[in-house]
Amino acid sequence: MINRKITFIFLLLSVIFLHSSYSQKYDAVDKLVQKYPKSFSTTDDLAERINKDFKDDIDKARAIFTWIAFNLKYDYASFLNPPKSQGFSYSNEAEKQKKLQQLDDKIIQKAFKSQKAVCEGFSLLYQNLATKVGLKCEVVKGDSKTRLSDIGREKLGSDHAWNIVYFDGKWRLIDVTWGQGYYDGNKGRMVIDFAPIYFDADPDYFFAKHYPDSGTFLNSKISKDDFLNGPLIYNKTIEGDNKIKAPKSGIIEVKNGDKVTFEFKNISKTDQFYYLNKKNQPVRVQNGKERKGGLEFQIVIDNTIGNYITFFLDTSSIASFKVVMK
Question: Which residues fall in a coiled-coil region (predicted)?
Answer without folding.
Answer: none
